[in-house]
Amino acid sequence: MSVSEAQTNLGIDPAVLKQIYRQMARIKAVDKAILRGLSSGRFVFNYWPMTGQEAIPAALAQLIDKNDYMVTTYRGIHDQVAKGVPLDRLFAETLGRIDGVNKGKGGAPHISDPDSGSMLTTAIVGAGPPIANGLALAASIRGQNRVTVVNFGDGATSIGAVHEAMNMAAVWKLPIIFLCQNNQWAEYTPYAGYTATERLSQRAAAYGFTGVTLDGNDPIELYRGLKPLVEQVRNGAGPVFVEAMTLRLGKHAGVGDSVQLTKEELVTGKANEPVGRTRSLLLETGTANEDELAAMDADAENEVEAAITKALTSEQTRSDETLIDVYADADAVPQRGKYPVRGNVSIPDGPSKKMLMCGAVTDAQRIAMEIDPEVILLGEDVADPTGGVFKTSVGLETQFGSARVRSTPIAEAAIIGAGTGAAMVGMRPVTELMFCDFIGVCMDQISNHAAKQRYMSGGATHVPMTIRMIVGGGIGGFGAQHSQSLEAWLTHTPGLKVAYPSTPADAKGLLLSCIFDEDPCVHLESIMLLRGFKGEVPDSDYRIPLGVADVKREGNDISLITYGWQVHQCLAAAEELHKEGISAEVIDLRTLLPLDYHRVLESVRKTRRALVVHAATEFCGLGAEIAQTINVELFSKLIAPADRLGAEFAPIGFSGLIESTQIPSSGSIAARVREIVSNKG
Question: Which GO molecular function entries does the Swiss-Prot or TrEMBL record give (predicted)?
Fold first, then answer.
């Protein structure tokens, strides 16, 4: 006969307490098996032990289910076990096997299992909370009764992205629990060595929501403390911060006891560790007997051993998987010697309006939001009446509401993280960065998370997000931190797609393609063109496929290969050269990744000369990649080596005289063409 809550006076249903212990036994068995296997050489992989932290996810597991979202860190294997990730597939993943939950492509630090609600594991300290916000935002917009839990260590609270995320969650009252598992060590630095805060939970009050500190080694206090907080968040009261105090008994990484703790601290810590403490409590109160607990322990060990045995029989993930899951379509991956033919694209006929590029961008977003209610806009000042600093979203909040068009705090990591999380669960966020230069503030979220999530998860999750960036160069007066063309940073990141339109019509068609693409896309918009160039734009919904270049002007003597606002400089140079009897063909790449090498090489086969032009710094710019490919593929056919022309290697000067000379112009382009054409080889 079971012992009642009243009989034990524990303040918890005995059946729940036994379930918590059962989960802790499973976590402990996993930890012991990994440490034993690493010590014996049975297997090898990187491991960050969570020894001593078993009670936290075990107690939480009784209050959430697979429909609730979870984000955790590289030390979060205990979180994965409690959330319900299948153990055989979990172990196969840590071993780099094809039957792993992510096909062996993510490994232990990057587990993603949507079936259990374990959405993302990050190996970057403090990077999870912004993405967890996006998961919570999607649930909020959809009216779903989901809670998002984001786990992180105490050391992560020193990271700016965590603070950005907490502030955004508070402003939007997101259904999220920030769960800090405070094991009192930030890698190798003790708590007092990196913060003067008495309790980390105190920080929540500064953002306007509840913060509590609980004993992370006491399953009853954890359960009773977490239960009302989970209900509060689930009922729409906004975020909470939970600091669960525990102690890391193992090393930061690897096998063995902590070498940071003194002998006395280690002895005391082991005496207070949650598994033994809970076991004793169950026995002392008569809630369970020794046979019951021994059976639970044995079941856990048998389950873990069976999972490891099965995982070890799985095949190592082979090299033929290398280029799969980089993008939805493997043909988007740049590969030497493989240049897909993607056909011709023309702007459709029909009713049109003459408009600025900013108007075309707004029109594209309006059409996308009418087509799909899951398209949302996030960015600084994007809501009405401002409608974006560059007026690219005017009227959209009025038409579609504040839930879908959201002005954000000035917090780029939080913006991109929220977009990434929302996209992972099927929304199509359009996130705006006011200037391309600001990717330096949020590059981690772009390159380490949005770009890599499809690959790290083995295709289990992906990020159909669009990032709009304004490129400020060429207009003068913005200086070194608002004028950079940083597309080479982006094209060097596997998983991203990059578009850079030169006309309003192209901007609309490319942006619509980006929004409905299944991969994260960056849409670069030149400030020179946003409000300085008008063109006819069809009223209809039309798409310019990514990876299809456009011949803006035909010619026979040299191919000018370019993109963005430099297209207009090249066209002006071609007109000037025409007067001198030099026929220049102008190729507008439109998309930088995927890149239409087929059309580029087709043009250069005809002209036998090439110059790649961009506003970005010439040294290590995209032009070097394109020129080298042309030289390799068409070496025997060229009259002169393919060359490139970019900005001088200096920050963009505030002085108009400096900027106008350091970035290619029609005059400098024409001058370089004359040099190339005069070279007879």
Answer: oxidoreductase activity, acting on the aldehyde or oxo group of donors, disulfide as acceptor
Does a structural domain hold residue 167?
Answer: yes
Residues 96 and 185 in one domain: yes
Q: Which residues contact 556 (CB under 8 A, 6 or more apart)?
A: 583, 585, 606, 607
Q: Are residues 306 and 434 in the same domain?
A: no
What's the token pair of residue 409?
Answer: 């705090």
520 near 450, Cβ under 8 Å? Answer: yes
**DSSP-assigned beta bridge partners for residue 214:** 244
Indicate the residue among 538, 572, 605 that finishes a domain: 538
| Token pair belonging to 324 | 């799969």
Residues 260 and 374 occupy one common structural domain: no
pLDDT tens digits for 4-38? 444 457 889 999 999 999 999 999 999 999 999 99
The 3-class SS string of 175-217 reads CEEEEEEECCEECCEEHHHCCCCCCHHHHHHHHCCEEEEEECC
Examine residue 446 and state whether it is found in any structural domain, yes or no.
yes
For residue 291, the model assigns a pLDDT of: 96
| Residue at token pair 């786990």 | 151
* CA atoms within a 13 Å half-sphere pointing along the CA-CB vector of 308: 19
- pLDDT recorded at residue 532: 86
Which residues are annotated as catalytic? 482
Look at the chain and report how many structural domains it folds into: 3
Mapping DSSP to helix (H, G, I), strand (E, B) and coil, where does residue 377 land?
strand
Half-sphere exposure of 216 (CA within 13 A, CB side): 25
Instruction: List the beta bridge partners of residue 469.
Output: 433, 524
Q: What confidence score (pLDDT) does residue 680 get? A: 62
Residue given tokens 């977009």 in the structure block:
419
Written as six digits, the tokens of 103 are 């096909």
- Alpha-carbon distance of 416 to 50, in angstroms, equals 29
Q: Are residues 497 and 387 in the same domain?
A: yes
CATH number of the domain enclosing 424: 3.40.50.970
Residue 166, phi then psi, degrees to nearest 5: -65, -40
What does the pLDDT read at residue 476? 78
Which residues form the domain of 521? 353-538
Residues of the chain with pLDDT under 50: 1-7
Q: In what order do the strands lie in the sheet with 240-245?
A: 118-122, 69-73, 148-153, 176-182, 240-245, 210-215
Question: What distances in angstroms separate CA 607 from CA 349, 430, 566, 585, one per listed residue?
Answer: 31, 40, 20, 8
SS3 521: strand
* Percent of the chain with pLDDT strictly greater than 90: 91
Residue 486 and residue 563 share a domain: no
Q: Nearest Cα to 491, choosing from 657, 663, 329, 624? A: 624
Is 511 in a helix, a strand, or coil? helix
| DSSP character string of 230-271 | HHHHHTT---EEEEEE----B-SSSSSB-SSS-HHHHHHHHH
Q: From the CB of residue 125, how many other CB atoms can be counted at a distance below 10 Å?
A: 19
pLDDT value at residue 8: 54
Contact 551, 587 (CB under 8 A): yes
For residue 127 the two structure tokens come to 């990077």
Q: Where are the alpha helices (DSSP H) in 406-519?
A: 412-424, 439-443, 453-456, 487-491, 504-515
Distance CA 626, CA 333 (A): 15
Between CA 185 and CA 292 the distance in angstroms is 35
pLDDT of residue 27: 97
* Residue labelled with tokens 């405070």: 182
